[in-house]
Structures are given as structure tokens and as C-alpha cells.
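C-alpha cells please, single chain.
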Amino acid sequence: MAGVAVLVDEARWLWRGRRWAHLVSDSSYGELHELAQAIGQRRIGFQGDHYDVDETDRARALAAGAVPVNSRELVRRLRSAGLRRRSGGEPRWQRLASSPAGADPDEVLAALGGLGAGGERLAAGVGRLGTLAAAGSLGLYGRPDQLAVVIDFSPPSPAPPPAAANRRVREAADEVWLSGARADGQRSLELFVGR
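Here you go.
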């Protein structure tokens, strides 16, 4: 399995009362994103070469096929694969607006209106989601190169378009990410556009 694996180190970094680990691939970012998506990670959580996962998601990643390694082995294999990126290489996401589940998404939609053509495209995508956008919590995020709308929803919220492949939603975004269920059952639908 060496050379082709999603790896996870020990959950030993304490932050916000939980212990965290790193989820990486020593093969490809695509492989990493696929496993992260399956265990419910948000795409905006990608840190340039890894996802931070708490102890619960570490266990879920292991159950989904990730290979446990120590931190030194994780970094060594990431470097050997040429997939290691130093911190600061990937711009950080900043939350620009949000609305809680069931609230009127007007604040988010108004903020999108002031963000040029990319914001208009995202507003159109959110509008095409109808009841899902109204029932879920919405977050608007930005960084210098991209904008993203994240809709977090839980059953029994209306289901998103099949596999987030609704043509009209896809036309409004450069990338669409539909996560698998997290440990609490919640899922995320994320729409991304370039700035």
C-alpha cells in the first residue's frame, strides 16, 4: 500500500477542547478529497495539503480506509510524493456573511450582490436551490481568488439536487461539492466561483 494511500496521524493537537489530526494523501489530492468528502468534510476545510480532522473524524477516516501513521511518517510521505505545501501557500477563507438554519438568507444574498459577477453567479445558484437554501444554514466565504457559499443541512431538510449535479446549479458555479454525512448526520453543499 506504500505510495498510494490516504494517511492520518495521531489526534494530538489540542484546539477548542478537542484533539486534532491531519488527513493527507501520498498519492494525489483527488484521492484525499474523495475520502474527505465521504466522511463529511467541507471542501473549504482543505488546508493546502491536508484536512484537519478531530478524533471522531479520524476514526471515521480509518474505517473508510485511511492508514494510521505517526506525524513524522506522514510528513515524510507527503514530501516524497511532492504534495507537501508550506503553510501560507493556500489563501485562507474568511467568513463574509451567514444566516442560521431556517432564517431568511437575505443577508447572505445581499452580500453576494456586492461581489461582482462571481457574487451574482453564486446568488443565482443559491436561488436555484429553493427550499434547501431556505432550510439550511448559509455561509458566504471569500478569499482573494474565490468565493464560496456553504449550505449546511440535516435530515429531514429537503434533499439537494441529485449528487449536486443539477445542471442549473452547476451553471452558476465553477465547482460544486456535496459532502457525505458527518458523524452528527449533517451534510454540506458548497458552491465555488472564481473572483
